[in-house]
Amino acid sequence: MSISLSALVSTHLAYIGPGAGFAFLGSFLTLLAGLLMSVISFLLWPFRTAWRLIRRRRGFQRARVKKIIFLGLDGLDPQLTEQFMAEGKLPNLARLAAEGSYHRLRTTFPALSPVAWSTFATGVSPAKHNIFDFLDRSLKTYLPQLSSARVGRPRRVLKLGRLRIPLSQPILELRRKSQPFWKILGKQGIGCTILRIPITFPPEKFDGKLLSAMSTPDLKGTQGSFAQFTTRIDKATYENGSRYPLRRVADGFEGEVEGPADTFLENETPLRIPFRVVPKNGTFELHWQQRSCRLTPGESTPWQRLAFRTAIGSTANGMARFLVTETGAEFTMYVSPINIDPERPALPISHPAYYAVYLANLLGPYSTLGMAEDTWALNEGVIDEDAFLSQAYDIFAERKAMYMEALESTNRGVVACVFDTSDRIQHMFFRHLATSDRHQGTIAKMYQQMDDLVGKTISFVQPDTALFVLSDHGFCAFRRGVNINSWLRDNGYLHLKDGKQESGPFFEGVDWDRTRAYALGLGGFYLNLKNREACGIVEPQEAEQLKQEIIGKLNMLREENGDAPIHAVYATRSLYRGPYLDAAPDFVVGYNRGYRCSWDGAVGKVATLALEDNQKAWSGDHCVDPAFVPGVLFSNRKVEATNPGIEDLAPTALALFGLETPGWMEGKALL
Amino acid sequence: MSIKLNKDLWAKVKKVAMAAGYSSPEEFVEHVLEREIAKLEDAQTDQEIVARLKGLGYID
Predict the structure, then answer these.
(1) Do the domain assignments include residue B58?
(2) Are A284 and A277 in contact (CB under 8 A)?
(3) Looking at the domain assignment, is residue B23 inside a domain?
(4) FRET label pair with A293: which of A157, A302, A357, A496, CA 20 to 30 Å apart?
(5) Overall domain count for chain B
(6) Over the stretch A46-62, which tens digit does the pLDDT of each residue have?
(7) How many Å lie between the alpha carbon of A177 and the closest alpha carbon of chain B?
(8) How far is B14 from chain A (nearest CA, A)?
């Protein structure tokens, strides 16, 4: 009996990573093999087409609908939605609710987008899809890693002097397990177009089209590193971007955009593109690589292509947007994270590979970064709120264009698209909800934009179409942060070396030989378990008792005024079952409204205080007890279920096309 | 890439995979192999992994 392990060794053309990155074009043999495959593929084309048509006809025979549309509005909050509907601000959603149905949609533990959208896709709980948080930890080093995708260097590299030539493909692995419903439908010949649903990088092969979303890196391999160029020269580096100097020259300013490191070189020097800014008639011109564009202060440029040349002459293609934020005695310019160019992607960002290129050719360049809206640039004050909103709505317009294209070109099958605008704007503007400043209505206006999108979607709905508008979680204020690591230190569960009381990030200075529990990520925390963690000290037979002890104490945490930051702490094993449960945090923390894990605590830093104010622009969040932040579910169909959950949508999609719910799925068909 | 398993073992793999909640026997085999290999593999370069998280909105 043979089993295919092709997923483990799928081919990719490129590798991007911090300290590494860009397109590796492959050897002559690779090209020859590609040519041969093309010829064979061409010869087999009539047979494959005939088979596909037969399969498709069979696939739709039992279908109760011709088309399903899933419109995902990330983070759309039920309380605000209901309030705005009652105020008459959301006529299209109100119509859907009246003529079809509306429910609050139960979300996952924890209520985080990577977790919840993975459950949406697969119909299973985190213990079966393996995504428990944005981050998980290395059992060997306790360092954080992205929970959803693994990007690694090629295993074999040829050393030629100071050159390094990769001889194998880089490691690119989607860490979300189980099967998305679109893969199951694809096997039945039912085509799906999946646009920007989180945790789809790297893209999986299936019989349909998919554009990757959350976790897709920028060209540097990070989750988004902006740059600021300024004549105010100092060496300050922002927490999630970098500040670079601009040199004054006779006709303007000069600088260099830093791209990915050149991994073809032993020392992996960052690739750079020099540029010049020249004042002209009250505006400025940007010149680089025989290209130029106009810079109007306060207005972001369209996407500009940046081609980084490596030591061996290959090119890593990216694109960025430029925004002049200060003129006069000093000059300052923001450069967005360098996105992978969808027209010439340095990494696979779609399935099939040409789908990203097709969309770029049809609609123009578009953001490809997983979390495309630059929340950190606003947090750090590098761009202002208006610039952030402008960027967020530009990304919304790009997404809307590809969504509309999919709706127009899909007569039958599934169109599923997630819009992040609703999530990002609430994160950054939630504090304005309770003010009377000019941004007080920003969130309401955003909800109206989403309602308008729903209206446009409804125009594509026929009697044999099922429409679902849903969100993965709701929202609430984030005023106070809880540093679980500091609390563990205060209660004797975590110890630092040399009698210190604070640590740097990533558990720097933690004495693992005396530490029984530690926290990393947004949703939960871990025991330092013997035979699991590299320096684990908790004996497995003591674990249950220790868990109950910690849960009991942490539930009693109080502010000085008596407020409880935590609603409930859950032992993960009581929440769900599945083959990946061993990788889960041992505890999930259900924070009360207004609280979240602190910025420091999320990255394994032990701070002086266990409770602190959140002072960032990022002022709304959903990392609280899931009971407080359900999502929404609207449909043009009558959904009668009393407590629908996000895990029910995948079985529903299968049922509407006449397929039974597979035994491993935990959701139940709603229709 | 393919691996040959004898029929008896494959039958057991299918049964166990279903009972454990995997979506296919292949997923079960991959998981078992990945888990065992991870014990033997060296950890990736620390700073490289951490650098990749830069810019993730939810963390500092």
Answers:
(1) no
(2) yes
(3) yes
(4) A357
(5) 1
(6) 887 777 777 776 789 99
(7) 8
(8) 11
CA distance A655 to A649: 10
Most A CBs within 10 Å: which of B34, B41, B59, as the mutation test of the A interface?
Answer: B59
B49 vs A6, A145, A240: nearest CB: A145
Q: What domains can you pick out in chain A, each with its CATH number?
A: 15-61+219-346 (no CATH), 65-131+176-216+349-475+629-656 (3.40.720.10), 478-627 (no CATH)
Q: Is this complex scored with an ipTM above 0.85?
A: yes
In tens, the pLDDT along B12-57 reads: 999 999 999 999 999 999 999 999 888 887 666 667 777 888 877 7
How many alpha carbons lie under 13 Å from residue A444 in its C-beta half-sphere?
A: 15
In degrees and rounded to multiples of 5, residue A447 shows phi and psi of -60, -35
Cβ contact B18–A152 (<8 Å): no
Q: Quick: pLDDT tens for A135-192.
A: 999 999 999 999 999 888 888 899 999 999 999 888 899 999 999 999 999 999 999 9
Q: Please, what is the angle between helix A442-458 and helix A421-429, to 10°?
A: 170
- The boundaries of the domain holding residue B33 are 7-51
Q: Is residue B1 part of a domain?
A: no
The residue of chain B nearest to residue A179, with distances taken between CA atoms, is: B23
Q: Contacts of residue A151 in chain B, CB cutoff 8 Å? A: 52
Question: Which residues in chain A are closer than 8 Å to B49, comparing Cβ atoms?
Answer: 138, 143-145
CB contact under 8 A, B48 and A223: no
